[in-house]
Amino acid sequence: MSLGQQLAPHLPFLRRYARALTGSQVEGDRYVRAALEAIVAAPEEFPRDLEPRLGLYRTFQAIWQTVHLEEDPRSGASAGTHEEIARRRLAQIAPLSRQALLLTAMEGFSVDDTAFLIAKSPDRVSELVNEAIAEIERQTRTRVLVIEDEPLIAMDLESIVRDMGHDVTGVAVTRDEAVALAMEDRPGLVLADIQLADDSSGIDAVKDILAEFSVPVIFITAFPERLLTGERPEPTFLITKPFQRATVKTTIAQALFFDQATVPAGA
User: Fold this and answer.
1) Do residues 168 and 162 lie in contact, with contact meaning Cβ atoms separated by under 8 Å?
2) Judgement on whether residues 109 and 185 belong to the same structural domain of the protein
3) How many Cβ atoms are within 10 Å of 256's Cβ, its own excluded?
4) 61: buried, middle or exposed (CB in 10 Å: 19+, 13-18, 0-12)?
5) 65 and 166 assigned to the same domain
6) Is there a single domain that holds both residue 153 and residue 101?
7) Which of 137, 160, 189 is the last residue of a domain?
8) Is-cis flag, bond preceding 242, omega within 30?
9) Are 169 and 212 found together in one domain?
10) Fewer CB within 10 Å, N side or C side of the chain?
């Protein structure tokens, strides 16, 4: 099996990580593209002694760290953009903490593998994860709309959201109900399944909502390949079912971290 064939199944998830790290589909894909170009340019340097996924992320991390050491963190971003909002918040939290959090909670790497990827000790990785969670939760509080037709999953999501200190504006099980709830009480975040109770689409519900106002969205689905096609605009934040509570918490924190207009809980 060629190196390209070994890496292909892992690319959608690397793109997910890159987007969560940067808060932008365009920027995230730019870093992924740079990593792939580096592999194509020097395939003999790819670490063949590692699992392909670990080697792929290791190559990405090398690109990311090199670029961010060279860039002025204040350059290229105008006040009020998502990038500038993110940069201001990033000034209060170490980039390594966020990387450690995403790699463990969202991407599912072990503490040891994460330590390898970011070149820190396992104990330090654990410290970084705890620091990131505490700081991100401190910075972001909002109201959340849940679009999910499976009662147990909806209850689990509600519990996670409230545990993080956010409020739940409602739970919708159809497209029409989701849009109605969103118009009645505008949320600061939307958690959306794709397939809903009446065979309507969570994607369509989100499109209807976004046509009225801007809000960060996290899609939660058992079929991520339906969204990560590369053929149309794709979600910045995507969680695969079955999910871990830590993954949901991390993704919510990241989505709100990059949002310009987080709605205060209870406002």
Assistant:
1) yes
2) no
3) 24
4) buried
5) no
6) no
7) 137
8) yes
9) yes
10) N
Give the CA distances from residue 21 to residues 14, 128, 181, 200, 222, in Å, rounded to whole numbers and listed in that order: 10, 15, 30, 31, 22
What CATH number is given to the structural domain containing 199?
Answer: 3.40.50.2300
Residue-by-residue DSSP string for 25-75 = HHHHHHHHHHHHHHHHH-GGGS-TTS-HHHHHHHHHHHHHHHHHHHS-TTT
Virtual CA dihedral for 67, 227, 106, 22, nearest 10 degrees? 30
Q: What number of other Cβ atoms are within 10 A of residue 167's Cβ?
A: 18
Q: Quick one: tokens of 24?
A: 């932008």
Q: What is the pLDDT of residues 1-52, one digit of tens each?
A: 899 999 999 999 999 899 888 877 888 899 999 999 999 999 999 988 999 9
Q: Please state the pTM of the whole predicted model.
A: 0.59
The CATH number for 97's domain is 1.20.140.160
Tens-digit pLDDT profile for residues 183-196: 999 999 999 998 89
- For residues 159 and 153, give the distance between their C-alpha atoms in angstroms, rounded to a whole number: 10
Q: What is the DSSP letter of 185?
A: S
**Terminal C-alpha separation, the chain:** 56
**Which residue, of 111, 137, 163, is where some domain finishes?**
137
Shared-domain flag, residues 113 and 230? no
Q: For the segment 87-137, what is each residue's pLDDT rounded down to a tens digit? A: 555 545 667 888 998 899 888 899 999 999 999 999 999 999 888 877 776
The total of other beta-carbon atoms located within 10 Å of residue 263's CB is 21
Whether residue 178 is predicted with pLDDT greater than 70 in this model: the reply is yes
For residues 8 and 79, membership in a common domain is answered with yes
Total domain count, the chain: 2
The answer to whether position 174 is within a domain reads: yes
Count of beta carbons in the 10 Å neighbourhood of residue 254: 27
